Amino acid sequence: MRGQKTDVTFAEVNWAAVRQLFPYLLEFKGRIFFAILCLIAAKLASVGLPFVLKDIVDNLDANLLIVPLALLIAYGLVRFSTVLFGELRDTLFGRVTERAMRRIGLKVFQHLHKLDLDFHLNRRTGGLSRDIERGTTGISFILRFMVFNIVPTLLELGMVVVVLLLNYRPGFALIVLAAVLLYVLFSVFTTEWRTRFIREANTAESETSTRAVDSLLNYETVKYFTNEDYEAQNYDRDLASWESARRKNRLSLFALNGGQALIISAAMSAALILAAYEVKAGNMTLGDFVLINAFMMQIFMPLNFLGFVYREMKGSMTNIEKMFALLNEKPAVEEAEDAPDLVVKKGEIEFKDVDFAYQSSRQILQDLSFKVKAKSKVAIVGGSGAGKSTLFKLLFRFYDVTRGQIQIDGQDLRDVNQRSLRKAIGVVPQDAVLFNTSILENVRYGRIDASDEQVRQALKMAHLEHFIAQLPEGVDTLVGERGLKLSGGEKQRVAIARAILKQPPIMIFDEATSSLDSESEKEILAAIADIAHEQTTLVIAHRLSTIVDADHIIVLEKGRKVEEGNHQALLAAKGRYAELWNIQQKKPPVGAQSYVE
To answer: Staple partner for 355: which of 130, 313, 403, 477, CB 3.0–4.6 Å?
Structure first.
């Protein structure tokens, strides 16, 4: 149910991560194969390095200079091979990681566009963008380090333990095994303990980002009410929560790093003390002592790195929790996989016994039936809360009806795919929102393959030519964030031009002239009249003077149809429409009930 928090446990997210990440790894099988070969070569060179170092030390007192010199050259080559194969591995696998980030990022983006209107009305843009950013970064880390660091490190540890058991007394292998076991247990326990601090920090960061984005998007409103200090106080309160969470995160990390360092230092000291004792007893050479020291460093450096990788993986899993939760979100409005395209031959619309409620306690439409004939102009009028705008949201299938049917040319909207339905309908909303790009590109968004000439023709039909001619940069003028550089009327005309360019068989105008002055309104009404001859037009109107030429007018009140007919017939009926008309033509008497929005 919308509004309820998705209950996703951490273990479930981990499995979801594994299931969803492996298919992306297999896209470049050849690269992964060669990366694994480089990985094996690097680990073999890494394990062999201490043996070369042992031989160098044991042969430093040799009479022939050529022996230690050759060993020194071999040592350099082996060390270089370790780095070279590691770099080749990372380079080969980098393409796999980048492609996986691209694929998953695109999948999340597409999924968000598939979710229903209700989700987006309740979303918090700033926090959502941070969740996606952190999730993508976390996925990158997991792909790189889980596959080519954790398993290889454990493999290297196993190889070193076997070598120590075969060549030296069991005490060295026991020290290593005990240290590794204690290190892993301590790291797991402590990391699980501090994961909640990472979550707190991420939540606080999302809250802070959401607060900042929301405040800046509403910059003008903040200024209108001189609430800069209020916004700053709220932002600082969120920052204080973030600071506190980060402090807990930092202190817990100190405890983790300190404990890990203590375990490593104790194990290395114990191994070297044992090795020194063996050298003193004559059971080992000085070269063996150096080998044991090198192996201890060889083991505990990747082990320390393994601890870092585990901590970061847990953090990354925490970061991608919300991203996977987003992918698990199911749209309230779904369609069958094999849903056919909507076929619009005439453009006739019919509402049949429609009921609709956003919530069970709030009924919006009740038993509503009417028909919009092909290429006719039908207006929907009524008071505030009558359900006028809800009609177009249902027709565009942002929501599904609770009961009844909505049909276009006899096809139930629930039986056709949503993409074809929405391609057939052009919408000019009451609140026109524009992208932060040029006027030309905002209009071209109606049909992205349209030529410049077609865009200019749409601008002409929307009566924007005179306005654009006055701009220094003409159609290339940037409109600003959400079109804030334009007036309300200018934004609406750009939105009308965009809908005109789309050339759909059905056009909906939702209070499309509400922000226009009288002269602009007259021009736009003329443009709408021209369009209505070629398209089925549904007009949701507040000002009745704008729809007097409609072929049919439907009057709604509290979600029910109370009257219908043309302008003259409704005036003659002296019902609710006539009352609304009279109220708008003159100032209503004191105490009179108003049905005007």
So the answer is: 403
